[in-house]
Amino acid sequence: MRIASMLSSATEIVYALGLQDHLVGISHECDYPAQALRLPRLSRSRFDPAGLTSGEIDAEVRRCMLEYGSVYEVDVDALRQVRPDVILTQAVCEVCAVPTGSVDAAVAALPWQPAVVSLDAHTLDGILHTMRQVADAAGQSARGEEGVARLRGRVDRVGQAVAGRPRPRVLTLEWLDPPFAPGHWVPEMVTLAGGDNLVGDAGSHSREIPWSRAEGLDPDRLLLVPCGYAMDRARQDADEHRAHLRRLAPSAIDGGRAAVGDSAYFSRSGPRVVDGIEALATWLHPDAGLTMPGERILERWR
Q: Is the pTM of this model over 0.90?
């Protein structure tokens, strides 16, 4: 079984299930775990985001969607070379990763027809289901069930630790220029970690909001997890929008209750969202007896 991954979360799922020996290629965005980086890249972006501000990235994304209908290209020649039996892709967000439609078009140009498995999660349960999908596609269904049980057990332990505690009001933003409120599983992560997410609906699409929509909320906590940004870039983006953020959340910022996060633990629909839930719960309820995961996931922002 030869597996090609067209999205970062799928690559992480393959490794979490112990199926990495079957992986023959990855997307241009895959960056974890480090062992995967030796594999051929099977896609590319239509623009280089290096050095661009979040506003400039947003403009380039909109341009690519208007001109091409997609931000990314599949490298058909690279696919021919690695000859996958299964290609893992997604139809949740055309901006975040190579979409299923682009993969279908690329497969049509191949002399054989690999199976295309679309991992379309919108909730935590959906993410766990995608782990089962990957395991099933590899003929290793038992590994999927075992992996889901491990992650579910960790989430349950968080729920037990925060049960009955006061729930801080949390304003979460997953992009800053323009501002976006999170959807899909991110509001659910806040809820599972013992907070009340103020803007953004679980299971729905993320949506652009005007700054004025969030002014006056003055949340107990401010969580900034710009999609696609690691910690240092997220902190830089927050610094660049400091004036807006101070108007939204003066109490949280002045009280040291604002945080920036590595979006790999929030915006990716893979197993590391559970690390994100554990980190959130530790941040929201530091006296609940939970331990912050060892990775660099959340840091205070001033």
A: yes
